[in-house]
């Protein structure tokens, strides 16, 4: 009795350590994101400027108006946007892996990527307006997932998880075929679409942050509140039902939340691959595998990971930028390989 | 108490359970036996409210069809034949899932839930394995973890689907002895689908023999486990022999000797 109590309690005591560690990682990433760039900004000056903005009595910003603009209009919004996109993709990936009990599930599983890709391609090819890409991508993603779900439901509610994944593959293939056809007809649009597909955080001030924030906030809240249910789903639909869970309802809620959040993230940042798989798995390999810890940790570490990836994307070949999707895969793959080799806790 | 009244379950248009009526009294262990495809698992799933049925299934006087999902799970724990056991979860995390019927929809476990898990771990001798991941457990340890989860569910009815499949003779005995002890101590009602007829006769108070979805025989081991009945419904040649002081043993015999 005592031994069991100690062990259950010990696992619970590990939670604060992970929380503190991941928050420190995020804080470090945010600070790096703000400080690193062509124009030098000192740590103290940045902290004072933030304090002055927060109306701390007696503190004034030591930054020049130009530096102030770099901090507040360029770097901070981009860092915050990166954090929001990274948090959403990582949490959505973990959610999809839980809902579909598939370790290779990523947030694009149900056709989000193909739908967004087709939407963006249509916007570039037929309307020729760059600023229409985000809403068109969002609409395309939403339509693709809605079609996937409708197809899945019409094909039968038995083994819904597998059916949905198959429906996602079907819809994604169709949308990708249409996208390729449109691109072939409008070869001049290839470069614009291609650069969007590889992912890029825009430096367009706070408007993208304001656009994305409500989606990420609501989606993250729904996923966070259902993290225990995700643990229960891990024993399969039927056993989850014998434990009192309304499996279809929980699955639908989680898929809708993760998909809407992902579609919003994709619409502003393009298709950034790898984050939704690498972050949750790196956390699993290093320690917690229960969704109760995995979801909040994915949000925090995913945010920090993408902010750091963006730092590399905009500084490695400065003044040119590398697509952030290339960076996430380029840095993420070796990192993940190292975690996989060194971890003894997997399997 | 489980009461089945003219229960019919159709799967893909086929009557897999066909007009079954039976009762399992409080604290009684009924063994569900029958050849492969007889409908044992489907009947257990119907009792757990997992498949739609015609007729009436009552759990402690309440019709399953009138109970909410959560209410059923507070009354019935089902140990499936091949439980899904996520390799990465620890034993403690897995057993904690058994408390789901008592945790508010968006809430988390209380101290009482953790205490129930610790009791279950202790009862199954799993304290030292609480922090181990399920993927590292042996077959016997895994079965104990599944039983601990069912025990943590704190129900008055336990449904077991082939609980001793893939266990060695020692582990089989250990698991069945444990269920028997639990039944005696907590007045647990047990309905267990069992392949091993000797073990079924040894541990169950009564046996229900299903064949092609219908009840073919009901009664004590001595009444049901006869060479003629087994030959008729299983198509097997067996010798039913008395093990003095230990009940009956059903032994297959080689044909032509």
Provide the spatial order of strands within the biggest beta sheet of chain B: 6-7-8-3-9-10
* Secondary structure: helix percent of chain A: over 70%
Contiguous runs where pLDDT drops below 50 for at least 5 residues of chain B = none
Order of helices and strands of chain B: EEEHEEHEHHHEHEHEEHHEE
* Rg of chain B, Å, rounded: 19 Å
Helix percent of chain B reads 25-40%
The chain pair forming the largest interface, with residue counts per chain, is:
A-B, 31 and 46 residues
Report strand % of chain B.
25-35%
Largest sheet of chain B at a glance?
6 strands, mixed
- Broad structural category of chain A: mainly alpha
CA(first)-CA(last) distance of chain B = 46 Å
Rg of chain A, Cα atoms, Å = 21 Å
The H-and-E topology of chain A, N to C, reads as HHHHHHHHHHHHHH
The assembly state of the depicted protein chains is heterodimer
Mean pLDDT of chain B: 92
Overall pLDDT metric of chain A: 85
Structural class of chain B: alpha/beta
Principal-axes geometry of chain A comes out as: globular
Assign an overall shape of chain B. Answer: globular
SS field, number of helical segments of chain B:
9
Structural account:
The complex is a heterodimer of chains A (347) and B (257). By secondary structure, chain A is mainly α. Chain A contains 14 helices and no strands. The longest helix of chain A has 35 residues, at 65-99. The model of chain A has no long low-confidence stretch (mean pLDDT 85). Chain B is α/β, with parallel strands linked by helices and 257 residues long. Chain B has nine helices and twelve strands. Chain B has helices at 40-47, 69-75, 91-96, 111-123, 139-152, 169-186, 197-203, 221-224, 227-234; strands spanning 2-11, 14-24, 29-33, 54-59, 62-63, 76-79, 157-161, 189-193, 206-211, 214-219, 238-243, 247-252. In chain B, strands 6-7-8-3-9-10 form a six-stranded mixed β-sheet, sandwiched between helices. A four-stranded antiparallel β-sheet of chain B has the order 2-1-4-5, with helices on one face. A two-stranded antiparallel ribbon of chain B has the order 11-12. In chain B, β4 and β5 (62-63) form a beta hairpin. The longest helix of chain B is centred in the C-terminal third of the chain and has 18 residues, at 169-186. Chain B is globular.
